[in-house]
Amino acid sequence: MADHPIKERLEDLAKRREQAIHAGSERAVERHHAKGKMTARERIEYLLDDGSFIELDQLARSRAAGFDERPYTDGVITGWGTIDGRKVCVFSQDFTVFGGSLGEVFAEKVHKVMDLASSVGVPFIGLNDGAGARIQEGVVSLAMYGGIFHRNVKASGVIPQVSVILGPCAGGAVYSPAMTDFIYMVRETSHMFITGPDVVKAATGEDVTLEELGGAMTHATKSGVATFVSPDEKSCLDEVRYLLSFLPANNLEEPPWFQSADDPERRTPEVYDLIPASNRQPYDMKKIVEAIVDDGEFYEYFPHWAQNIVCGFSRLDGHPVGIVGNQPQILAGVLDIESAEKAGRFVRTCDAFNVPIVTFVDVPGFLPGTDQEYGGIIRHGAKLLYAYCEATVPRVQIVTRKAYGGAYVVMNSKSIGCDLAFAWPSSEFAVMGPREAVNIIFRREVQEAPDPEARAAELVEEYTERYVHPYDAAERGYIDDVIDPADTRSVLIKSLEMLRSKREELPKRKHGNVPL
Hints:
8-stranded mixed beta sheet
């Protein structure tokens, strides 16, 4: 071997690999670390199981004319590995090489690994930290973005797609993350925007900081772009690993099951104390959910946005479930534009990846007002309705308190295809609340009474006793049973076990026309 001609070739290969691994200059790496950020390779090593990463196209480099330097990798690291022993494909943009900007070869690498993820049916994770299109490569860069967008859409609903924003993500680059299933951002270090603060100032005269315009909390609270926000990069990547534990590798598989130590027959009498005596008092729906699911585990989806509805992943007897519930603590749990969009998106995500949906209902109606009507509450509310009607996964409804009007129907009722529906004795099924109903039905009688207030109170009490309970709904089969709240956990587990073999034939069509 000592004199074998391949030895020289192997030395040359090792030298090239070393150059690829250290494609960014020492100075660029130091500046990157000074910002508290990991390098592209450090991120992959942290995210994936130890030693599992297999790199693709390590020796690819730009073919574009006019570059003095053509570093290997061309500013992005791509390949596959495992998370908790399950295969994933990944790319990680390298800000230390051309600022992580996208050129032709960079994009070809991303296209290749996206195609691999789709063809073998594994989750695809993008670690974004780049300056957008590479200006020197002009229209080629723009066209190459189109190739990524096209693949995002082709893979949508086939494999889970996760975007992790760990630095700048601007201009056209934001649209790939926007079409993936989940977006993670890190406080203070990650930013997303179509046009930066300078352009905004020149175009509109507005003075806005980078953080105010496109920071993590802006997108988590105002725009509904950032699904999850983390305080630092490592906790962010930890959460990506955690998220994947609830999801299957692709749309043809079932979500992963884990043996649970939490007794499936465990009763939950603590929920008695969580529902107030008065139906006008708020309570925390998250506490109800945490009391019922395995080990109180609830991974909340968009926790900072549209907080009048609660969505997230939990487990029941070790099986992942998607939870949707009205939140009486915020705006009394009404449905509005943002909550309908948030829950509609979540329901469709669960349905795409075979995650059963459990819906906890306490809804007094839709939010009234000109802002909502002019903003299109009819159209946006229809998104949630459409999502539930379209969903073929097992669907179970629990009505805890108010089930009023059209909002009750939208919240996964039997009439729109819910498989099994249950109500607590505290539940109230009605077209509207007792006071509102009395004001309409008995308006003249109340006005003409000697003591209008006292007569109105009597009529509200009579109306409540006669109509506002679950038993009319039970008599007509709109709910399948009225249950003891303490038995909710075991009822849900038995219901989902029964529904596990559910199959539904969909009509042949290109696709439905969602009320976007």
